[in-house]
Amino acid sequence: MSHDLRNPLAIINGYIETLQIKGEKISKEEQEKYLRIISSSTDKLTKLVSDLFDLSKLESGQMQVKLERLKVQELLFDSALKYELLAETKGIKIKSQICQNLPIVKADLSLIDRVIQNLLDNAVKYTPNEGQILIDACEVDHGGVCIKIRNSGNGIRI
Predict the structure, then answer these.
(1) Model pTM?
(2) C-alpha 46, offset from chain centre
């Protein structure tokens, strides 16, 4: 998480310093390019901070979880479709191995969707060109569902 926060801050800081140091020497096109990069990094940072606040609210019981019955496989297929075009630009294949007859689960749809999209977003971002992302989902004991999203990237050391 600290890397995720520091990276956009370093980018923002670097481009602002460049604009300040070079000032009038930078062309209008370069200035606009730098400002777009600063804006994009600011958006990423804002999303990360928002996610941290939401996590804090969840942990402290300040956020209400809205449980509803849902079919996980439909959510996974929809999420995979959303990322398919982005993955294709890097030659990445998204494959699904979803067990048949998964039970209906009780979960907060928006929170589960957010987790799945964050995992897929990271998978696409960190999978090398021509790599692959695999989405697994199977039933576990007591009617639950285990979801795994793996990619052919280097991964994170634990």
Answers:
(1) 0.68
(2) 14
